[in-house]
Write a sequence for this structure.
């Protein structure tokens, strides 16, 4: 494939940035990838794994001369990083981010973007419960959505260019406004994570009573919760602190529905439960039909794991 950006600077070198680097390099979408991460350990890992041509001790050095700068740090440090790189951005460059929350990131980053630099916020809806530079793999974005939330008046040519990069990494791209993004993600990702954290927390309390039974007899439902609840604590703390209103709105609705189901169980209202579960089953079918998951009983994880293993060997 043709080179889309000559030089890309990745700020933060964890799961998302390293996956982008692998995908961009394997597909020949960029000529040079440079990076910066907070710790010397992560910077050394990026060089050892070979997904960056160069890494720098400061973000300011990393962004010098870059055509595309990707902010791939936790949402809570976006402002600090943007303030540091602002004066060093090349005129005409594009800055994007991959934060899981959009409005708060825009509020944090936009004030630091100088005139003549394009800021196009983004969010790849792709991830795993793993983090760090060793967790990335080139196929992470394949057939996943990548949402862009440019403000009105953003240079359409530069939006199209960033879109082309995301698509060339295998993603499907959509554009929407930031508040809408935050509400949709509160439903599809943020609140489900909070529920998983809670359920695993409840089980942990019970474990003190039932000893190892919860692990020993862990059924598929609970195992899925534990996988989600293993996600990075820093990232998820920042998601909830920065998507407060939408998450609280959805949690309020969730609580109302939970009370309704609780009442149905207490009253023995089987029809209510059956209707409800039929509706939710149809949603699952819709997700599979849209190609966003597989119908395999292991949720296709065996296939994903072996694909990922093969990918890692290529790095
Ligand atoms: P990650 O694997 O934990 O990586 C985070 C990276 O940010 C690390 O390299 C870390 O460096 C670096 N970092 C943290 N604070 C920094 C600072 N002050 N200056 C420079 N670098 C700093 O995280 P991730 O999963 O890639 O997530 C990155 C972003 O993508 C987050 O905003 C998250 O919301 C978003 N996102 C995540 C997922 C997901 O499922 N994981 C999906 C979509 C979007 P050290 O290693 O040196 O600490």
């Amino acid at each position: 494939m043709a080179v889309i950006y000559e030089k890309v600077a990745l700020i933060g070198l964890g799961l998302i940035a390293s996956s982008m680097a692998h995908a961009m390099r394997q597909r020949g979408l960029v000529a040079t990838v440079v990076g910066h991460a907070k710790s010397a350990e992560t910077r050394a890992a990026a060089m050892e794994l070979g997904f960056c041509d160069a890494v720098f001790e400061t973000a300011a050095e990393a962004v010098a001369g870059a055509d595309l700068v990707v902010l791939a740090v936790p949402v809570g440090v976006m402002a600090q990083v943007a303030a540091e790189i602002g004066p060093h951005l090349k005129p005409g460059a594009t800055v994007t981010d991959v934060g899981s929350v959009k409005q708060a990131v825009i509020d944090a980053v936009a004030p630091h973007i100088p005139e003549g630099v394009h800021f196009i916020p983004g969010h790849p809806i792709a991830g795993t419960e793993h983090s760090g530079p060793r967790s990335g793999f080139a196929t992470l974005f394949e057939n996943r959505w990548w949402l862009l939330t440019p403000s009105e008046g953003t240079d359409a040519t530069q939006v199209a260019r960033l879109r082309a990069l995301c698509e060339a990494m295998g993603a499907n791209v959509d554009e929407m406004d930031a508040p809408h993004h935050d509400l949709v993600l509160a439903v599809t990702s943020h609140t489900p994570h909070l529920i998983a954290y809670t359920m695993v927390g409840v089980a942990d309390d019970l474990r003190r009573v039932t000893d190892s039974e919860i692990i020993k007899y862990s059924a598929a439902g609970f195992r899925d919760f534990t996988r989600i609840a293993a996600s990075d604590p820093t990232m998820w703390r920042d998601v909830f602190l920065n998507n407060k209103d939408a998450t609280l709105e959805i949690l309020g609705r969730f609580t109302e529905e939970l009370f309704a189901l609780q009442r149905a169980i207490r009253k023995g209202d089987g029809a209510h439960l059956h209707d409800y579960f039929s509706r939710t089953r149809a949603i699952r079918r819709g997700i599979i039909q849209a190609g966003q998951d597989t119908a395999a009983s292991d949720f296709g994880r065996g296939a994903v794991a072996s694909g990922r293993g093969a990918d890692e060997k290529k790095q």
Summary: Residues 11-17, 37-39, 42, 72-75, 77, 80-81, 98-100, 123-124, 127, 131-132, 232, 235 surround NAP (CB under 6 Å). The radius of gyration is 21 Å.
